[in-house]
From TrEMBL:
Keywords tagged on the record: ATP-binding, Hydrolase, Nucleotide-binding
Record domain Carboxyltransferase: where: 6-206
Transmembrane feature ranges: none
NCBIfam families: 5-oxoprolinase subunit PxpB
Pfam families: CT_C_D
Annotated protein name in UniProt: 5-oxoprolinase subunit B
InterPro entries found in the cross-reference section: CT_C_D, Cyclophilin-like_dom_sf, PxpB
């Protein structure tokens, strides 16, 4: 993977951002994840934490442990090097109850696209999504790979709160929500999976680069799956293990 003319941005004296582009693009995200992996291998002095996004990587650093300007140039050289392909992530199958009280916007999304609710569900579960980034709130997983036929601008007004586990779409993106929060996305369903659960190992279920497949489940299974997840079971299934 060759250099995509990355741009270096300094964020004060404790963070550096490398931008690979300005769009939601699988190739840009692959470059971000490849640089993230290369930095982990390089173990440069002064690097504290990395935060990958769709198109950029922010590196938090300790200005006492390393000169920020020198560290920034070292990171930029890595970004412009022949980066390896990002590692193959884990692949998760996540159960989802679609429609009804679990996905209050399913009918409206179907009507907008001239599809039946079942057709929307079928299109939503067909792809293998990729976790492009975690952001906004702990464990919120932003997914690339949504069928373009389902793409839909966000709602004109946000809801003041939506449940944890909401499976939603907005624009060309899909989302697995980790905790209850306001949202202007379209709610298709809900999963009992806790993608963020303090006290559990792992605290965060999903990582950037992971694959995600959705599996429709009957509403009658919700209570049992939700109890199991609340007790610390992952509920999601590893398909690559």
């Amino acid at each position: 993977m060759t250099c995509r003319h990355p741009r270096l941005l300094t964020c004060g004296d404790t963070a550096i951002t490398i931008e690979f582009g300005d769009a939601i693009d699988a190739g840009l995200n692959a470059a971000v994840l490849a640089l993230d992996a290369r930095l982990a291998e390089a173990a440069l002095p002064g690097v504290v934490e990395t935060v990958p996004t769709y198109r950029s990587l922010t590196v938090h650093c300790d200005p006492v442990a390393a000169d920020p300007a020198e560290l920034a140039q070292a990171i930029l050289r890595l970004a412009c090097s022949d980066l390896p392909s990002p590692r193959a992530g884990r692949i998760w199958r996540i159960p989802v109850v679609y429609g009804g009280e679990f996905g209050v916007d399913l009918g409206a999304v179907a009507k907008h696209h001239g599809l039946s609710p079942d057709a929307v569900i079928a299109r939503h579960v067909e792809p293998e999504y990729r976790v492009a980034m975690l952001g906004f709130l702990p464990g919120y997983a932003y997914l690339s790979g949504l069928d373009p036929a389902l793409a839909l601008s966000r709602r004109p007004a946000s809801r003041p709160t939506t449940p944890a586990g909401t499976i939603s779409i907005g624009g060309a993106q899909a989302l697995v929500a980790s905790i209850a929060a306001p949202s202007g996305w379209h709610l298709l369903g809900r999963t009992p999976v806790r993608s963020f659960m303090p006290g559990r190992d792992p605290i965060f279920l999903l990582e950037p680069g992971d694959g995600v497949c959705f599996e429709p489940v009957d509403p009658g299974r919700w209570d049992a799956l939700d109890r199991a997840a609340a007790a610390g079971e992952l509920v999601a299934e590893r398909l690559d293990a």
